[in-house]
């Protein structure tokens, strides 16, 4: 059993001027991520259940500071009634990666929050230092939410035209 409180963690949030349902739709459309997230090269759905509450996918993204592409196998479980997600790495470079994303309607739009817990795995990662890894995760988590915001607000403005 992994105790999340023993791991490093980052969190980020962003306010989006768009409807909660649109934000949830964009978040769940994993295969479109390469279209609006510059560091994401590929997302390939490997399996999903009919209700789309469980999706297993392969994710390939650029890690600019290291000059490498990172590939990982992940799974996400959605709770449609609360518009939330729990995701984790099944295969990849880290010893453990797990996170939660919530989407909540607020006056004037939607608030999206992400919390990510991770544990380093390889000696290579340890050599980079805990602080650098923490900073990379923080930047990546915020960049992901900023990309979702930009995409949602772009789609929302097209709907009102």
Give structural notes.
This protein has a 7-stranded antiparallel beta sheet with strand order 1-7-6-5-4-3-2. The model has no long low-confidence stretch (mean pLDDT 89). It is an alpha+beta fold and 161 residues long. It is built from 4 helices and 7 strands. The radius of gyration is 16 Å and the shape is globular. Strand 3 (54-63) and strand 4 form a beta hairpin. It has one domain: START domain (Alpha-D-Glucose-1,6-Bisphosphate, Chain A, domain 4, 2-Layer Sandwich), CATH 3.30.530.
Strand-helix topology:
Blueprint: E1 8-16, H1 20-28, H2 33-36, E2 40-48, E3 54-63, E4 68-79, E5 84-91, E6 96-106, E7 109-119, H3 123-128, H4 130-160
Antiparallel strand pairs: 1-7, 2-3, 3-4, 4-5, 5-6, 6-7
Task: Provide a concise account of the structure shown.
The protein contains 4 helices and 7 strands; from the N terminus they run βααββββββαα. The chain is of the alpha+beta class and 161 residues long. Helix 1 packs across helix 4.
